[in-house]
Amino acid sequence: MSELEVLARSLGALLAVLVLPLVAGYGEHKVMAHMQGRLGPMYAGGFHGWAQLVADGVKFVQKEDITPAAADRRVFRLAPAVALVPYVLAIALLPMHPAGALAEVPGSVLAVLAVTGVGALGTLMAGWASANKYALIGAMRSAAQLISYELPIVLAVASVAMAAGSLSLSGVVLAWHPAWLLWQVVGAVVFLVAAVAELQRPPFDAPIADSEVVMGPWTEYSGLRFAFFMLAEYAGIVVMSVLFAVLYLGGWRGVGVDAVPALGVLWVLAKAGGVAFVLIWVRVSWPRLREDQLQHLAWARLVPLALLQLAVTAVGVVVTA
User: How many CA atoms lie within 13 A of 285 on its CB side?
Assistant: First the structure.
């Protein structure tokens, strides 16, 4: 691969992580506005509130960038980048075209899980470095939540990799069969629920519960640094939605792809858009879980279900070998 191609692929990943999260954010504004009767996002700029994101961007740019006097300045300022950059790498690893991902690597299943796990460290760094008790409490909640829900995700993805006989996401797409919609349905539900918890979105937003700990790890952030955390949240929605589409919905496979491979990108985005809609729907429909309920769901429900799915997959692979 030439240096020019590497540069082009890197810029493609950066552009994707800058554009797709904004689309997800715009979509969330509209879905929440319709489902909850929120009038504001429907009027900004005129037609269907098209300028809402522009207004939000101007607001963030105008706000002063403040670093608390008692904060660990280096860690405090680095945290937003640590939260966002891993999602750039994850998007580069996700196959959205029959030709493969922007960065095709062996064992891409493991690579994506690894880099998305690193992104959560930005939240922990922000809470620890802020010198604020609410931020620290939020960081500790984040640590407990991320440890709990990482295991169900890994087990659910391991089941799919076992069924496909490959640790490559492209290999998973090629091995995918419509019967997986039934065979892997338990793992799919586990993955979806755990993904919402990993993104710390309602109803699993205890680490940033504004009614309890102000904004948790983000309490002391303002301006563009706070905007980077918001962008990282929406980038996480994009990554998890595309990953779900690749693992459980056949990725780029669809009508017309054999004749026109470029349609594969549209199929992935359409499937991921449906998953993102479900994530937003969950947000507006469910109340926040208490911390004990959150832990109970992970260890007493999701982990056993993920292990059951892994066992069923193992039996199926042996029987059909």
Answer: 7
pLDDT tens track for 233-250? 999 999 999 999 999 999
Tens digit of each residue's pLDDT (9 = 90 or more) over 294-313: 999 999 999 999 999 999 99
Whole-number Å distance between alpha carbons of 56 and 53 = 5
Q: What are phi and psi of 158, to 5 degrees?
A: -60, -35
Residues 6+ apart with CB under 8 A from 320: none
Distance (Å, rounded) from C-alpha 186 to C-alpha 264?
26
What does pTM read for this prediction?
0.94
- Residue of 95, 122, 132, 114 whose CA lies nearest to 267: 95
Pick from 318, 185, 321, 315: which is nearest to 247 by CA?
185
- Separation of CA 73 from chain center: 27
